Amino acid sequence: MNISLIGFMGTGKTTVAKLLAERLDYCLVDLDEEIVKEESRSIPEIFAEDGEEYFRDVETKVTLNIAKGDKQVISTGGGVVLREQNIENLKSNGGVVVLLSATAETIFERVRDEGGRPLLEVEDPLARIKSMLAERAEKYNCTEYQIDTDKLSAEEVVEEIIKIVDSL
Asked: Binding site annotation covers 32?
């Protein structure tokens, strides 16, 4: 079984995935890192040189390949939900998909000093986050397993995911 973490940037997917993989002794797979390996260039470079649509095509291809594995914790990019096929692939082979969520303000606080976020390189990043969350709300609702990370530590989120997996 694979456990895939979906959600907007800054909701804790990468941090939680590392802890969860360690705890379960699963292989950690970061979808964005796999895309970078596949393309031999950074995500900002992919966006700048070929655009978002091309990036989404590569993301779909890489997601399909990764989903064939087993005993993996998969940390996805925030936009993986934009293509239904990606979620279907992540759920294949009995995969569990868990949505990590947070408010726009929490997300902004978590990512504002990181850089390397092509979709937030705008005049008002908080407004952009709110707009993107609203646009993607329905797509993020693709799984019954949802955890609000606003007031939880990464360790507490891991505990919640383990409860979900144990209940299956």
From this structure: yes
Q: Alpha carbon of 107 to those of 20, 80, 119: distances in Å?
A: 21, 17, 13
* H-run or E-run covering 138: helix 125-140
User: How far is it, in rounded angstroms, from Cα 70 to Cα 89?
Assistant: 13
Report the alpha-carbon distance of residue 49 to residue 55 in Å, rounded: 10
Rg (CA), the chain: 15
Q: Flag whether 76 is marked binding.
A: no
User: Closest Cα partner for 11 from 123, 151, 143, 115?
Assistant: 151
117 annotated ligand binder: yes
pLDDT per residue as tens digits for the range 109-163 = 888 777 667 667 788 889 999 999 999 999 999 999 999 999 999 999 999 999 9
What does the alpha-carbon distance between residue 29 and residue 140 come to, in Å, rounded to a whole number? 20
Query: Is there a binding annotation on residue 14?
Result: yes
The annotation status of 79 as a binding-site residue, yes or no, is no
The number of residues in the chain equals 168
- pTM, to two decimals: 0.91
Query: What domains lie within the chain, and their CATH numbers?
Result: 3-156 (3.40.50.300)
| pLDDT tens string 68-113 | 999 999 999 888 999 999 999 999 988 999 999 999 999 998 887 7
